[in-house]
Design goal:
390 residues; two-stranded parallel sheet; alpha/beta; binds uridine-5'-diphosphate; seven-stranded parallel sheet; Rossmann fold; 38% helix
Length: 390
């Protein structure tokens, strides 16, 4: 653990108390690990679940973890718990990660999605503003919606011009589909909470930073259906494809897998968040894209690469038919729509924090799928053999 650590301007970093809401999720678990292992800061971890951070929490009375006095877990639902304001008052910095953020929910549970991403975040913003607390709020790259380029004719050469697809925090418009495409309920709720936070900054002096993650992936993302999540649940693409590979089923390509994404390794992205935490003067008042523009693939290419990588780490040959096409209506139901392409502009995060992602798509898939295989392969084998044994 560091002493004598300095920020990007050479000033000593003072230990602070961080109230992290949604600390028990994918990003929260990695952020807690990083803060506890590499900094002197304290974490008040708030979530309804703690499974993904249980390795960081002290088994009662054991006294074995070096950071035992720097993390407290508070099991609470921010929707309706009066303890939230007290926790915010105890902290120097609030990080809000809590959200419903799996696309399968956006069109099937739009009310829960809107409440979670807008209404439930309101008291957090209000308590931060009223108590003059700094806020780092997690938004999404989905706020950009579709690219301008996707409205051009298919054969237009302008489609190759970055001006028509690179997503810039301070210049790109937010382009969503019609209301009946309920996919956009999430993006729209996130957009409104961003606007509210921005307005609190402008009118009431709230110190804020907004993070727009571009497909962060890695170990502990979401769940494997039927193993540590509901059998009928639909997680994000990394976990969907991992589940298919573990079960030796073809990977399902929604609407042909033509959509494009850029994937960034969670450990690279967490370094960006730590820079924001420890450099408030450089991060306050900014909205940051956090992604890896060099790791762009179509979903079809992602499926092909994951199939190759999984075969390497599991030593199992790939299936003869590794992918199948499925319509979005069949896979997600009515009201699904998609972002066509997501390339983050990196100018602002580079200028303010000097951050750049390091890990290639192949390398991040290799370490993530090694984790998935080690964590789930046995459990899947047992689950598959059960019905036969009965
Ligand atoms: P996650 O679902 O793993 O984590 C969210 C956590 O918030 C969960 O542990 C959940 O239990 C908790 N939570 C939700 N509602 C709560 C409530 N009412 N009270 C208490 N806890 C609650 O998701 P994640 O991938 O870690 O994402 C974190 C944030 O980053 C979200 O705001 C999400 O919209 C944003 N984001 C993530 C990505 C990504 O690539 N992972 C991309 C875009 C945006
Ligand atoms: N997708 C897919 N098969 C799956 C799961 C997802 O083809 O089993 C596609 C999905 O339609 C989208 C992309 O993969 O185009 C990424 O989906 P994800 O759930 O990770 O979230 P998004 O990037 O859309 O927010």
């Amino acid at each position: 653990m560091a002493s004598g650590r300095v920020d990007l301007d050479g000033n000593p970093i003072k230990p602070i108390t961080i109230c992290m809401i949604g600390a028990g999720g994918f990003i929260g678990s990695h952020l807690c690990e990083k803060i506890l292992a590499e900094t002197p800061h304290k974490v008040l971890a708030v979530d309804v679940y703690s499974d993904k951070i249980k390795h960081l929490l002290e088994p009662s009375g054991s006294g074995s973890l070096p950071w035992a006095d720097r993390i407290q877990f508070h099991r609470l639902n921010i929707k309706n718990d009066p303890r939230l304001e007290g926790l915010i008052k105890m902290a120097d910095l609030i990080i809000n990660l809590a959200a419903i953020c799996t696309p399968a929910d956006y069109n099937t549970r739009p009310l829960d999605t809107i409440y979670s991403n807008f209404i439930d975040a309101l008291p957090v913003v209000k308590y931060c503003s009223e108590n003059s607390k700094r806020l780092i709020h997690f938004s999404t790259c989905e706020i950009y919606g579709k690219t301008i380029g996707c409205f051009l004719p298919k054969d237009s050469p302008l489609r190759q011009d970055p001006a028509y697809f690179v997503l810039k925090e301070d210049a790109s418009p937010c382009i969503f589909g019609p209301i009946e495409k309920q996919r956009w309920s999430y993006a729209c709720a996130k957009q409104l909470i961003e606007r509210l936070i921005y307005a609190e900054g402008a009118e009431n002096g709230l110190e804020f930073t907004i993070v727009r993650p571009f497909n962060w992936i890695g170990p502990r993302m979401d769940f494997i259906p039927g193993i540590d999540g509901p059998s009928e649940g639909v997680p994000r693409v990394l976990a969907c494809f991992s589940n298919n590979l573990l079960r030796r089923e073809p990977l399902k390509l929604v609407d042909g897998g033509q959509s494009q994404r850029t994937f960034v390794y969670i450990k690279d992205a967490i370094e960006a968040v730590l820079l924001m935490i420890e450099n408030p003067a450089r991060a306050n008042g900014h909205i940051f894209n956090v992604g890896n523009p060099n790791n762009e693939v179509t979903v079809r290419q992602l499926a092909e690469m994951m199939t190759q990588v999984y075969s390497k780490v599991s030593a199992e040959p790939p299936l003869d038919t590794p992918t199948i096409d499925v319509s979005s209506k069949e896979f997600y139901g009515e009201g699904y729509d998609d972002s066509d392409k997501r390339i983050p502009d990196m100018t602002i995060i580079n200028r303010q924090l000097g951050w750049n992602p390091k890990t290639s798509l192949w390398d991040l898939l290799e370490s993530t799928l090694t984790y998935q295989h080690r964590t789930y392969a046995e459990a899947i084998k047992k689950a598959i053999s059960k019905p036969a044994a009965n």
